[in-house]
Amino acid sequence: MSLSFAYFGASCIQFSLHYLIFLLIFEGEVLAKQFASLGAKLIISARNEAELERVKKLLTGKHAPDEVIILPLDLASGEDSLNDAVQKAESCFSNAGVDYMIHNAAYERPDIASRSNWVELNMMKLAWHMKTTALDVTEESLKATFNINVMGTLSLTRLLAASMLRRGRGHFVVMSSAAGKTPAPGQAVYSASKFALNGYFHSLRSELYRKGIKVTIVCPGPIKTSSVPEANTSGQKGSSEKRVSSERCAELTIIAATHGLKEAWISFQPVLAVMYLVQYMPSIGYWLMDKIGEKRIEVAAQKGDTYSLSLLLGRKKAL
């Protein structure tokens, strides 16, 4: 089943979670807060332990903040390190075992994501939205992006799935992207990494579904993060670009996961419309993206709105 959300169509969460959730935090603070408020037992992970401590103090709920487990983790650290993290996660809460694995770690530009200082990351988030043509991508950028977005995520999944299979239950929630469903001119490598995630996890679910393993893939469009509330994809302030709030995205993600949806789309228009076209009328969808692809990169270079309806219609307002 595939479900698409815009700014309507989903009820508020009116239930409680009683699961052990392993959450990789990157722009995932709001998601952690909502899980905690619903009574989930949380293991939160990221590279920066100080940032994890900060997030932990903000969590409230039946098991938060006192029982929240901090587990520093670098997805690019190699299989031995990832296996150690899995064993630690599995042993938490009297060896209860992880019920939900939330894959929420990703990056596009290695020159930014390799920095360890969280403040520097927040200061430079706008650079993430710079568009680079597919032919301008360096080998370093390609490898670094896939090491985190794909290789590290898949390795961690494979290691944790073994424990889930022994228990006969487990649920992977994967934060993918609209760029993993449609062409994303100017973001070819990032898009490729998200397409790879979608292919792997849909296949994983098909292989293991009858053994109790579930997978929910969430494909958000542009999201307004709490750390840079006024930022947009163009790097401008005060733009008319519509971005779903991180709070709403987190709420819809939890609804999709707890209702067992296989895939969920979260975005405003026109991104949602493009996703529908590519999914259900691919000839028209691809024709549209071919029509605007080069222009989208030009608009990004001028710090314009790269998700504008005007861009789709060929108007100059996007600039």
UniProtKB/TrEMBL annotation:
<dbReference type="GO" id="GO:0016020">
    <property type="term" value="C:membrane"/>
</dbReference>
<dbReference type="InterPro" id="IPR020904">
    <property type="entry name" value="Sc_DH/Rdtase_CS"/>
</dbReference>
<dbReference type="InterPro" id="IPR002347">
    <property type="entry name" value="SDR_fam"/>
</dbReference>
<dbReference type="Pfam" id="PF00106">
    <property type="entry name" value="adh_short"/>
</dbReference>
<protein>
    <recommendedName>
        <fullName>Dehydrogenase/reductase SDR family member 7</fullName>
    </recommendedName>
</protein>
<dbReference type="InterPro" id="IPR036291">
    <property type="entry name" value="NAD(P)-bd_dom_sf"/>
</dbReference>
